[in-house]
Specification:
The chain has about 400 residues and is an alpha+beta fold. It has 18 helices and eleven strands.
Length: about 400
């Protein structure tokens, strides 16, 4: 590797993007193309960065497997940043194996972090934790150690282990400052803000208040029966009943939870669960059927008893019933939760992350666009959707992930 390439690589590692580009801007050999691609990616020109990295990978010879593998890893990082979650994970895995065989442990660890971050985005938390457990961060340089701790904190926040998340973010901040990379320090600070902004609303006995993630963690450990509107689960002391695929049952459970300890009239339940403005005998019969199904689902956590005017929730062994709701009520809150990160998403990436059909996601995006909540740019497969983050709110609880009690 010649002196200009070495100097450009060192400038890139130190966060001096323009300094790196100045050294290789007029060169078209594979190492220079790779460095230019990484620099352009960090400057935000992801399309040009991807093209440069692909040219570099094609230019490296058969004896330069490590260099080609590094290009694959860099391209995978661009795909992750641009929310192209459909990129071939097998190619990244192969590149990581090549780097491990050739002794490039640092870039192999970076590839593993990319795999974990992708798993985290699509809600596969158990797999992310298992993959993270295989990494020992002690030999990492400060920048890689900061990235590692950000992943640790991300998993801890999804699991609502807030103390562990704070500790990991503290380590990430120290490592980022030691690395001296401004963008990395800003990323750590942005992640830390999530812990100090409202994450959910507590609805209990007719009153509402905003909760931080730490308060949510305490609420779930309090022994109260929680009707969780963020994850569509009813939970209490280590037991949970998911109603994510039963929207009518969850609507009934939430209505009963918001009214507790009072009852809810049959007319109100019909309006909440079925959108019925007036009730006839068929509506009342359907309500009786759905209430019976709800009793069956919640039998270990609560009973649902009939009253003169409707129904009421009777928790088993709990002193309190509360409803945990998203910070803002929105029909397509889960889609907004992803778009609120400020990145540009394709409908296919949202479909993969949400675990639902692309057509369902597209209908939600069209509805949000019609209301002016989101905006799109590009055409066809290049079309991307984005929205500014909701001011003053964190959306961690809206993203798909199973809590330990699920």
């Amino acid at each position: 590797m010649d002196s200009l390439i070495t100097a450009a690589a060192r400038a890139l590692a130190a966060g001096d993007l323009l300094g790196a580009l100045n050294r290789v801007a007029l060169r078209d050999d594979p190492p220079a193309l790779a460095l230019r691609g990484i620099a352009m990616a960090r400057l935000g020109d992801l399309v040009r960065a991807k093209a440069l990295l692909r040219r570099a990978a094609r230019g490296f010879g058969p004896r330069e497997a490590v260099a080609r593998a590094r290009c694959v890893v860099a391209e995978a990082e661009i795909a992750l940043v641009s929310r192209d979650l459909g990129w071939p994970a097998k190619a990244l895995e192969t590149a990581r194996a090549t780097l491990e065989r050739r002794g490039d442990w640092l870039n192999a660890a970076h590839a593993r972090h990319l795999e974990i971050r992708r798993l985290l985005l699509i809600g596969r938390i158990d797999e992310a934790e298992c993959a993270l457990a295989e990494l020992d961060p002690s030999p990492f340089p400060p920048a890689s150690r900061a990235a590692h701790e950000l992943v640790v904190a991300g998993i801890a926040m999804r699991r609502l282990r807030i103390k562990a998340a704070r500790v990991a973010l503290g380590r990430a901040e120290r490592s980022a400052r030691h690395a001296g990379i401004t963008a990395l320090t800003a990323e750590v600070e942005s992640a830390s803000l999530i812990l100090d902004t409202p994450a959910a609303r507590l609805i209990a006995r007719g009153e509402e208040r905003l909760l931080l993630l730490e308060a949510v963690e305490g609420l779930l450990a309090s022994g109260a029966l929680v009707v969780d509107g963020c994850r569509h689960v009813v939970r209490n002391e280590g037991r949970a009943v998911s109603l994510a695929t039963r929207p009518v049952l969850f609507a009934l459970a939430r209505a009963l939870g918001e009214a507790w300890p009072a009852d809810v009239s049959r007319g109100q339940l019909l309006a909440r669960a079925f959108g019925a403005k007036s009730a006839d005998e068929s509506h009342r019969a359907r309500l009786r059927v759905e209430i019976g199904r709800l009793r069956t689902e919640l039998r270990m956590l609560a009973g649902v008893s009939a009253t003169k005017r409707g129904f009421m929730l009777e928790p088993r062994g709990s002193r309190e019933v509360v409803v945990l709701a998203p910070p803002v009520d929105e029909e397509h809150a889960t889609v907004l939760a992803f778009l609120a990160d400020g990145e540009a998403w394709s409908s296919s990436a949202l479909s993969l992350a949400l675990g639902t059909s692309q057509r369902t996601v597209q209908r939600a995006l069209d509805a949000l666009a019609a209301s002016g909540t989101v905006q799109s740019f590009g055409r066809g497969r290049a079309r991307r959707w984005m929205t500014p983050p909701l001011p003053g709110f964190t959306t961690t609880l809206l993203l798909p992930a199973a809590l330990p009690t699920d």
